[in-house]
């Protein structure tokens, strides 16, 4: 086995020890297939008010522009599927936001992995990415053989579905690349049929500006009145396309204590949400990704569902 092969075995073993579901490797080069897709998606305004998606177009498509001398992209998956959903007596928030903000949790683990790489392999340069830089996470994960892009545009894996975060290490270390897997969506259209706002405008194409996650998190202005009644109690994010996906029958609960919902969150009922104050918001979501929409945004989302509250 070459040195690169030994290093890849070491990195994957350490990733598993740190709790990652899986780890795959691809060569750091230009994403040729994704370039025209991203260009068309932006051209048709499917990013809505997410102007940041227009920035750093070249960096999104070429990791060597993010990390000088980059040779390998290591993609990692981290499970967030909960053992139980929040009470049906309250409103709905996306499962990924039940516990502590995933950026912090996963970055801590990636930093540990980076230290191990530098201790065991030597002087390796690179950067850590957790959904916070211009990196096309799903494209790299698919290239690395961790799954395929489903018709709902999320990464899907036969063994574990899609309820996981994707993160990367982009390194100046040459490693053997893994092979992509084939698409297993077949003729299924469950996600297209179930999307409450018809945001999946065609198989594999999501109009981000129509997605409930966009309206409840990204949109800073008022929610368009024509969306009234279009979704069922979601106030932060939306999991519908994943919930109906047959492959998520294989999802297993995560074992990450930091992703567990607080007792305060588990106890929230509809009237508690409606009477939410900024002080209680800070208590219920001290380290949560929900803080991204801010108290005012969450209040707007609840009022949209319950006019007059």
Topology:
Elements: H1 3-17, E1 22-27, H2 34-43, H3 57-61, E2 72-79, E3 92-93, H4 102-120, E4 126-129, H5 137-143, E5 148-149, E6 155-156, E7 164-171, H6 190-194, E8 200-202, E9 205-206, H7 212-218, E10 234-236, H8 240-243, H9 263-266, H10 270-274, H11 278-284, H12 294-305
Characteristic key phrases:
309 residues; alpha+beta; NADH Oxidase; 2 domains; four-stranded antiparallel β-sheet; two-stranded parallel ribbon
Give structural notes:
This protein is of the alpha+beta class and 309 residues long. The chain has two domains: 3-85 and 99-171, NADH Oxidase; 190-250 and 260-305, no CATH class. 32% of the residues lie in helices and 13% in strands. The protein is built from twelve helices and ten strands. It has helices at residues 3-17, 34-43, 57-61, 102-120, 137-143, 190-194, 212-218, 240-243, 263-266, 270-274, 278-284, 294-305, and strands at residues 22-27, 72-79, 92-93, 126-129, 148-149, 155-156, 164-171, 200-202, 205-206, 234-236. The protein has a four-stranded antiparallel β-sheet with strand order 1-2-7-4, sandwiched between helices. It has a two-stranded parallel ribbon with strand order 3-10. Strands 5-6 form a two-stranded antiparallel sheet. Strand 5 (148-149) and strand 6 (155-156) form a beta hairpin. The longest helix has 19 residues, at 102-120. It is globular and about 65 Å long. The N and C termini lie far apart (65 Å). 38% of the residues are buried. The model has no long low-confidence stretch (mean pLDDT 92). It catalyses: epoxyqueuosine(34) in tRNA + AH2 = queuosine(34) in tRNA + A + H2O. Catalyzes the conversion of epoxyqueuosine (oQ) to queuosine (Q), which is a hypermodified base found in the wobble positions of tRNA(Asp), tRNA(Asn), tRNA(His) and tRNA(Tyr). Its main location: cytoplasm. The active site is at 131 (proton donor). Pathway: tRNA modification; tRNA-queuosine biosynthesis.
């Amino acid at each position: 086995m070459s040195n690169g092969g030994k290093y890849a075995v070491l990195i994957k073993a350490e990733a598993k020890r740190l709790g990652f579901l899986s780890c795959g490797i691809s060569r750091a080069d230009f994403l040729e297939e994704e370039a025209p897709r991203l260009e068309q998606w932006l051209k048709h305004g499917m990013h809505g008010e997410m102007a940041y998606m227009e920035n750093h177009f070249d960096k999104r498509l070429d990791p060597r522009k993010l990390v000088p001398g980059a040779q390998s992209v290591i993609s990692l998956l981290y499970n967030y599927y909960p053992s139980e959903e929040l009470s049906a007596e309250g409103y709905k928030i996306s499962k990924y936001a039940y516990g502590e903000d995933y950026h912090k949790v996963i970055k801590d683990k990636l930093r540990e992995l980076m230290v191990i790489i530098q201790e065991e392999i030597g002087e390796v340069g690179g950067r850590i990415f957790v959904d916070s830089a211009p990196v096309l996470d799903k494209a790299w994960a698919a290239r690395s053989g961790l799954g395929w892009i489903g018709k709902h545009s999320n990464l899907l894996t036969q063994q574990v579905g899609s309820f996981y975060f994707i993160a990367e290490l982009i390194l100046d270390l040459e490693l053997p690349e893994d092979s992509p897997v084939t698409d297993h969506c077949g003729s299924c259209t469950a996600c297209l049929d179930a999307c409450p706002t018809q945001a999946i405008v065609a198989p594999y194409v999501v109009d981000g500006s129509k997605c409930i996650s966009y309206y409840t998190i990204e949109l800073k202005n008022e929610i368009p009145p024509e969306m009234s009644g279009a979704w069922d109690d979601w106030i932060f994010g939306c999991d519908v396309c994943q919930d109906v996906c047959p492959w998520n029958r294989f999802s297993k609960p995560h074992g990450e204590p930091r992703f567990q919902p607080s007792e305060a969150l588990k106890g929230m009922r509809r009237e508690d949400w409606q009477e939410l104050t900024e002080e209680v918001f800070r208590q219920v979501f001290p380290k949560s990704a929900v803080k991204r929409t801010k108290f005012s945004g969450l209040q707007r989302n609840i009022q949209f569902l319950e006019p007059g509250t």
